[in-house]
Amino acid sequence: MQPATPLPLSLIVTAAALLLPLLAFGVIMLATRSRHRLSAAISIGAAGLSLIAAVYLLVQHWQMQAPLVFQTVWLVSGQMAIPIGILLDPLSLLMLTVVATISFLVQVYSLGYMAGDPGFGRYYGCMSLFAWAMLTLTVSSSLLQLYIFWELVGLASYLLIGFWFDKFSASEAGKKAFVMTRTGDVAFLLGLVLLWLQLGTLDIPVLTDPAAVAAALSPGMITLTALLIFGGIIGKSAQFPLLTWLPDAMEGPTPVSALLHSATMVAAGVYLFSRLFGYFSLSPTAMAVCLAIGTISMLLASSMAMVARDIKQVWAFSTISQLGFMLMGLGSGSLFAGVFHLTTHAGFKALLFLCAGVLIHRFHTNDMFEIGRLGGRRLKATVVCMIVGAAALSGLPPFSGFFSKEMILGQLLASGHPTAFLAALLGAFLTTYYAFRLIFILLFPLETDDAGHADGHGAHHGAWGERAMIAVLVCLAGVTVVLGFFEMSLHDFLARGLALDEAAPAHFTWLPMVAGTLAVAAVLQAWFEFGRKKARQIGWVERIPILADLFGQRWYLDRLYRYLLDTLVYRGVSRLFTANDRRVIDGALDGLGRSTIGLGRVVDWVHGGMIQYRLMIMVAAVILLILFIGWGG
Amino acid sequence: MAYQLAGFPFLTTLLLCCVAGLLAILCIPARHARAIKIVSAVFSGFTLIVSIYLFIAYDQQAGGFQFVERVAWIPALGIAYFNGVDGFALPMLLLTGIVFFTAVLTMWELELRVKEFFSLIFLLVTGVFGLFMSLDLFFIFVWFDVSLFPMYLLIAIWGSTRKEYGAMKLTLYLLAGSALILPAIIYLVVHSGSMTFDLLALMEGTRFTPAQQRIAFFMLYIGFGILAGVFPFHTWSPVGHVAAPTAVSMIHAGVLMKIGAFGILRVGIFLCPDGWQFWAPLMAVLATCGIVYGVFVGLSQTDLKYVIGYSSVSHMGIVGLGLSTMTIDGLNGAVFQMFAHGIMTALFFSSVGHIYDRTHTKAIAELGGLSRVMPRASSFFIIAALTGIGVPCLASFWGELAVFMSCVSVYPVAGALAIGALAVGALFMLRVVQKTCYGPPLEKFAGLKDITAALAVPRVILVSVIVLFGLFPGVLFDMIHTATMHLIGLR
Hints:
The complex is a heterodimer of chains A (633) and B (491). By secondary structure, chain A is mainly alpha-helical.
């Protein structure tokens, strides 16, 4: 018996923050699913308490120097011990707060957005599951535990993307998301198992300790496992080549997209990279691959966003490209740049999706031209919030995105990656262009037909629901405006607790000027093509048919995968194996059965009992005998 | 030593519960169908209670075989009625108890020849319980055949979809298996030097030469392996599952396939460790083939039950892979997976059975939108599918994880392939879920009622077991570990 030590308060608070959403999930799914308001109250209550707990922890440990680890064992079997625990360090505390904030706000917003949906209770149940999985992933103390909750995050997003399962597109998108991320997870799990075999433990503090890792693993092994784990990140964070599930994932309700694209699911991939940043840093190859994949994804997704008409799709593509941007920052060697952009992005991307949600909710269409025509600009608060979000996405000062983007650009330059730097500048230009293309299309429609809409549908889901939605938007817009100014304090917070040996973020005095000018130029171009009085609202890409086709078809990646899946898997291996089963294996056995029956027939014939056959055989035998004897004699 | 008993004979009680149930059913006139069902539920409930008690009462500190009871039967041949359970047998008894009880409840709406059906089920389960607890080779063989014989009638009378073909195929396959097992047992007994069928005496007292072990192990592996659905002897299983009525599919896939794996473990591995070592690579290859093959063939199936049949082939491959690693974790994972797969498949077949009872079709193309029409019934199906995919916090995940972890260390390529099959497995299951449960509600199913409370009970039990062992896998792992340590320690 160990002496009973009082449990540390931080442990209790963290455990409460994690378990409340699980409890809410269980209660809602088992008991209150059909009682909509109660389910929502339970779920939001749990999310709210988690948020309070997360903020409390963040404030409490703001000055923390060394990480806190609480660990116990979930399962032991022979050599395998699976720990479950909590790792509190600045990174997990920051992410915990981000996740709790976004999921709380999204749940409040959903009160209005999902009102009247027959699956309201189920929706909140799944939201709680999502929150639980993501929060626990964030504070996982071992990689295996992280993997477990990583899979649960995937499960929750499968359930939520396919929430309106009546629609074929929705159930298809859910399935696609799960299977594509699973494909990446195969690599992740393999890497994890290899790592465990070599190292004997998967505790994150050990993995990120360069001395311990270098002592146990050869450089080749480090690179191999790092790349395999990176495979999981590619799947989860929708990077090239596994990026095509994310644009489809907008089939889920818009608040789900907001959650999925900002703080959970896709963010989990980048979070994993920053969690294992110390490990990845040991392998220059892995870092280079990360940088390359990030760059490719960023450019690909930006190009796709330039021609999309669907408002959610634009933001979905921008998510892929911003995630790529974060990976570029991380891959070029700066933990803080990546994490800071992850944080700011969570705020403004949630904002953008939720704004889009208000418009979609009101006008029942996703098409930005249609929304513009129906009078989207009349929703002033929403449009203003959306402009704030778009400005942050574009990296316009003084919004949060400006600071974090500039930090990554500076890092790329400082670490000596000029090509990636130029690519990033191009990406930033394109991002601003498509963001403001969308804004201008909304603001300045070519024709208007807003007679009955703006007022007629004004208050159809109860004013308080609408008000909750707007309040959430304003909240997030506020965060987006101020968050950038906390750059230095966040950096100090992270550096203190993680013992980062990065110097203060690299600043080039000319960089903000260049980046800012570029962004303004992109806005101007968007204005020229879509905003000004005589604009025909046809972008330069659309004037080049080849590019328009290529971008519009998403570089034909989807078609390629569909084709490969159909020919290789369904029509190839699967059909071949089935044929083998029916023809070869069963055929052989049926043949065996038939030949047994045939043999039986022969024996049966011989034993027929017909006297004449017996006589005949007897005579024949006697003749043969005589012949044989005669011959021999 | 003619007679030996350690305390109250719980194991015999367990068997007697089944026999008493069988006799009670036989005594009730066939027209009292409801009484027969209640009696069946009560006696199967007894078996469940006893198996839970045994699981709890087993002393894990002491380990080894407990609740031993032994009565000499034919001393001249060294045959004894000899029962005992260890950490391998107890999870299987528990599994059998759960699946048996829920299977009986699942058939609550049966109308055709109720008396015959339940008496055959009781006979079948008696054989299964007997096999899991027996420590005498002769009895193991007898119980094996006792559990096979009722299968033919159950499928041929109450089945559907080519039932005569399915029943005949299954019976022939399994008899071919027992035609390998019996010579192997006799071979071992003859070469032991002492005339005894006592498994423990054979294991500890004699040392077979490696060559003898190789011969015997191979025959036992194939013989029992046929029943475990080892590739390429698996084709009886989907056909048989499809033809069988719901409860029989549940018991069949949930428990009978485990007999195969358990037989390999109990007889093959216990008696022929060198043979095991020799054939382990072959086992790994066949198991990996089964895992990969099962998911790919499952992808292009058009019948709901075929899909599940092939998923069983794939999941039982994981059990085989675990057994082939010859490591503690591998064995633990394999036995855990046997348990988890049993519960999961039972849930699968019971939910599919319900869908079939209501919609009268198993063709995937004709189904759709069931989540709107029967939300509860289809959520059971979805949970089973998610368990099959290996979602964490549902039981299967832990078994798979332990097997994969040990497999990568022993057979890296096989391990990588098996892990790779996870992605295809997800596609395969979610495709079925999408086509049956999701989509717009179909006109022709508009009038269907959701599952009734009485029929929901067995499914809820199965789901709770899956979640329970998904959240607290240690309960089962600790139990299995006592036996694994003992086995590995002996080698």
